[in-house]
Amino acid sequence: MAAANVEIRSPGEAVARISYLSSDVIVSVQSAQSIESEFSSHLRRYAGRKDRGLVASSESGVPEIETVRENSDPLLSVFAPIRSGKLVSVTTSSSILVLSVPHLYRLANLPVVIHVSLQPSQYPDFSSITSIRNSGFTFLQSETLQEAQDIALTAHALAIKSGKGVIHFFNAGSSARDSDLPSEDESVVKDLLNLDAVRSFQNIKIGSTDIYADNGRIATITEVHSAENGISTSMEKAEVSSISEGPINSEAPSKASSAGSSKSDRESSVDDKDSISSATTVEQTTTRPVTSDDIYNFVSTIWNQLKHRVGREYTPFQYFGPANAEDALFIFGSDVGAFKEAIGSAKSGDVYAKAGVITARLYRPWLASKLTATIPKSIKRLAVLEQIRRKTTKWGPLLLDLLTTLKSGPGGGVETIVGHQLGYIAPDAIQQALRGVFQNLKSERPIQNLEVGNSEGPSESGETELSQPKVESAYMKILDQIFGQRLYLANAIGSRDAGVSASIASNPEFGFGSLVARKGHRQRFLSEVQASTSSRSLGNDAKAALSKWAASAGDDKKLNEVTDELIALLEADQSTKSKDLLANKGLFRTESPWLVGSDAWAYDLGNSGVHHVIASGENVNVLIIDSTPYSEGAAADAARRKKDIGLYAMNYGNAYVASVAVYSSYTQVLQAMIEADQFDGPSVVVAYLPYFKENDSPLTVLQETKKAVDLGYWPLYRWNPRNDARGEENFALDSERIKKELKDFLARDNHLTQLMKRNPEFSSNLAQDYGSEVRALQKRKAKNAYAQLLEGLFGAPLTILFASDNGNAESLAKRLGNRGKARGLKTLVMAMEDYPLEDLPSEDNIVFLSSTAGQGEFPQNGRAFWGAIKDNTELDLATVNFSVFALGDSHYWPRKEDRHYYNKPGKDLDRVLANLGGKRLADIGLGDDQDPDGYQTGYQNWEPAIWQSLGVDKVEGLPDEPPPITNEDIKLASNFLRGTIEEGLLDPTTAAISAPDQQLTKFHGTYMQDDRDLRDERKAAGLEPAYSFMIRCRLPGGVSTPKQWIQMDDVSNNFGNETMKLTTRQTFQFHGVVKTKLKAAMRGINQALMTTIAACGDVNRNVMCSSLPTASAYHRDVYRCSAKISDHLLPSTTAYHEIWLKDENDKKTQVAGDAVQDYEPLYGPTYLPRKFKITIAVPPHNDTDVYAHDIGLISIKGKDGRLVGFNLLAGGGMGVTHNNKKTYPRTGSMLGYVSKEEVHIACEKVMLVQRDHGDRKNRKHARLKYTMDDMGVDVFRSKVEDLWGQQFEKPKPFKFQSNIDTFGWQKDENGLNHFTFFIENGRIEDTADFPMKTGLREIAKVHRGEFRLTGNQHLIISNVDDADLSKIKEMMSKYKLGNYQFSGLRLSSSACVAFPTCGLAMAESERYLPELISKLEGVIEENGMRQDSIVMRMTGCPNGCARPWLAEVAFVGKAYGAYNMYLGGGYHGQRLNKLYRNSIKEHEILDIMKPLLKRYSQERTEGEHFGDFCIRIGMIKETTEGKTFHDDVAEEESDEE
Ligand code: SF4
């Protein structure tokens, strides 16, 4: 351990240190993982420093700390390690003890030490100790800080000596006034522990791993008797042996222990016995259980040693006071020191002067003879003070002990023993309390059980109440949402029925009992109601309603229907009878009874209440919430692995069973709970909600859930054993992969075959159950197969490994491989992560290409390799030739101190390989994005050096390398966007489609993606990524009918991930559509008379327009124009219909429009060079960001208030590539005014000029914005006008005021109502707190107007007639949809999708921006800016889908957790922002934003917007046009200083 003799400040610290020194494993019990116990912070500190313990047998000598929550059966964690020969100790509060009784009995005969801090610390309850006093443990008590240290050490030494469990308990509050003390010297600890005995214990394994079988284990002593000259000597060995039955209390050993005893090598700790001469003796051994006397002998030895070393003395009972005292107190409670002090300073006249005080140091075993020896013979009267708060018997347990000892034993002269209940005594009331006690004691007729002090304890209790972790409340909310008033929760934590107390987790038996009682109660209530129907005291209406209700009994639906009316009538009735009945109002409804528990119930299923519930056949629903994270569960120690409650219940046969996960499928949770409620019999719903700490963010819970469900660790399913009878299948699988145990269960009854028949697309997944894939084997196989392929080739071998995240290093590696092959080399190209490291020493030539990620880290697919090699000292690379090429950006880190990150992975690898003895084929090559040709500049020198070194640089006749296939080639060869999409969709061997088809499907409105949350897990499991598709609709102007809304909702539920995204292009986007459902989803969308064609791809995309809730007629005009432009520019290919819309009979389904032959009059066969976007804004609202698009149309109103035409801007665009200054965002340039009749033609001509002049060679330079800057605005305009044959007029005046939405209700000129909902980042989904998706669907069912999606990803319910208003408002309030009382910052924010679905995302966006805003809202509020709008946007990459470059403040993902920060955008989207900080993390963002916001609140001028303010105060320079976006950025400036 690091520093010896540090000051110890608290008993928690003293105990933690001794425990750490004396254990292999410490089970640290905490009320919640996020709440430290009085021990845990110290333990973590030691472990964090990697302090070595004295006994830990691990290689590092560092003990293992296992943190366990109080309500997850903590003592269970002791069994596995202690059985494998590890010394285990537990640090805990007393609240776990009573519920751990079954474990205590089993642990009593194992050398475990449990350190118990009594709770609540100000006034602890000693009944938690007395209730378990007969569990077979040895109990030691400490009172002061010094004692806590000494007795903790005693406890460990005694456990080792005796082989038995020791509980050391103390009240931390008692030593609050003690001074700090030096930590015990390690040599003393070592001496007392007897390390030889420790090692002997560690070398044995105790056997069975089944903790549920009764092991009948008992600590024993083996005595070796030596008969020599008739004198018997003995040597004792404390051992662990087995007998056939248990449990055994060592105080009353009832079984012989010789049978089956296993001899241990563990030496006796009683080493002061005579030794035996081996030559002349005859030995006999006998084995017997450890007795109380043995414990006494052991503990005395230890205390003698302690006295010898440190001078402090301990005895089983301790007496303080004069030797001739006549009265004494025996205190079993807190703060004995205060009593001693008060007595010590008593005046001679005080009734308690000269009294003695006795306490127990060794409480169990109760050594009566030692007590009588301790108490002076002069004592006549003894007052017993017991601090027992939960009394179960009339007489306190200590009083009974003392009565037995002193009255019946040879106990001296005590004549009077009087029991008292010790309540809380404030320090200044001690004397008064003592007076009371002694007056009672000395009175003629002392009162037994007199209460002393306040039995309620001090007003503020220090007890930590067990609270339900916040995240777990999700399921409660869903139960509440579904069943409302019908819900009857038998054991909600904190409720009256929670079990033993509010501070102790509920157990199933108790809750079940309560449900059964409730059932009986209802039966009686029913009879009471029947009888009341003729009651005279009730009014007629109430009577009639009661009769109606009683007549409905048995028909739950009907009953619940008439209940509301009945209750209302009874409430109006006011009679005594009605009041009586209303006292049990809840019983009028047919309740949905639920019992809620945690996965702690899963460890001991056979014995648990879960079993009783299922076996009872009662109509009871059990919800069991499993919170073990996938990453922990998958790696769990087999001995501690939980039983699968779902499988257990299914095997039982009579129960409805469902396995659900709210963060995977909300709908499935609803369905399962409803089915469970309807099932007449026991139902078990096992629900997943994984978290590491109670304050984990929902994102962590989501990611853990996804991994668990995806890999089959937590399959989603529903099982109804009665479905068979209805001709339906019992088992419904709601996820796609199942674990082996479930598969075996299903296979047994043929359910698996049926399942596979029904869902052939699942077959491969089902056959490949979770856990059967082994990544390592796959690596080996792949490499061997490749090696075989190369066998036939001559030439030197060259292995090429790459680590790449943007594809550059990978494609360079592949090209290098091909070039090597052309030179006759045997080349092998692999990702670093796929390479078996152990093969490295046998390579001849190996080269590495690595790009640079994050803060100078390896890309994802190189990290494992680097992790394995970086500290490796074993590999011998003496015969290996290597070289490294690194790719990076020397300007990526502007701060000087960060510059070393440039190409760090490559440089590190080069160094490590050389250190391991490798020879360089060529010096490391450094590719730098800043070089004239980017990384190619460095590469062009490096590659020839490799060929030269390998002697293949002069090879003649090398073949020409084929040019890379470009998007242009793909389009041209695709036959008007067909490619091989059809064939790809039919390929069952993969969930993906080919790379060229991935480009083509974009034109059809769908992208292939893979779930980024699952990439690593799946890779590790040897699976292909979790591919799915994103589908985007084409919805001009963002207007949808209510019917279409419902149809879209159906598409998301039936084919997608149950959510919809309203996008920044005012349309619906679906995520998570797997390949097999893609066609059906497309057809669903087309059946709603929407399409997806040209929603993505190199074509004109969805045309947007302002949503304009306040002017309906004008909106209609503009909206029609957007639809007209959209239709006019639609591609004409029939491939879309052909691929997606044929039904089973090969007939096309109904769709809007159908072309006859493939001919693209506008686009031609290669379509546009890049995507093309058009938007319309209606001043003063720039809610569609008119400057950000290829064409931006600003509508112009005529004198009659109707649309007349548009000012046309062209050349706006957002996409940028990090570190590539040739790319930049640009605001559109004004071309002029055009009438509404001609606008679609003008747009067409702009598009055609771009079609013909856009850059088709470089996609990063292909957008109209670059064409326009290259050509110049005037030239561009003239080309458009030439094609058009007309001229733009001069632009008309207009004025924008903002680019955000106006939330809440607004009326239009026709008196119709419109409500703008705040939909955070456009995500429509249900959560337990907010059933938004369901609510909107319900509203769509009754709404007669329309829905409008806004360009800021929000939603407007439009055209609500006054007559419908109250109904709509009621529904909005029911589903909590009306809330827009958020900060101005939140209301003005938007984020793109990014993780997990977007393949380009470098950082989180939609899932993170809300969190970031929450962290800023404190400052906003403090500075009175809650209502102030600041436009803040975030995207996961510089593609800029949420148009970040126009925000006043923006964050653009750079790497996971790191963002570029931009400031100074115009409030209504008119001005680009500029880079302020490069690649910063959250704490840096907050460090910048918090003071800046404060400053803004204090220094802004009237009406000044945040972006303008940042420029005025010189935080950032103004960006005047796209071309100057990279100039004068703040980071470079500060760097030059
Ligand atoms: S901005 Fe980037 S990360 Fe965000 S959705 Fe668009 S492409 Fe994906």
UniProtKB/TrEMBL annotation:
The lineage of its organism: Eukaryota, Fungi, Dikarya, Ascomycota, Pezizomycotina. It comes from the Eukaryota. The keyword Oxidoreductase applies. Residues 235-286, 448-467 are annotated as: Disordered. It comes from Amylocarpus encephaloides. Its cofactor is siroheme; [4Fe-4S] cluster. Residues 250-262 have a biased composition (Low complexity). GO terms for molecular function: 4 iron, 4 sulfur cluster binding; FMN binding; heme binding; metal ion binding; NADP binding; sulfite reductase (ferredoxin) activity; sulfite reductase (NADPH) activity. Belongs to the nitrite and sulfite reductase 4Fe-4S domain family. It catalyses: hydrogen sulfide + 3 NADP(+) + 3 H2O = sulfite + 3 NADPH + 4 H(+). PROSITE patterns: FLAVODOXIN_LIKE (PS50902), NIR_SIR (PS00365). One of its GO terms (cellular component) is cytoplasm. This is Sulfite reductase [NADPH] subunit beta.
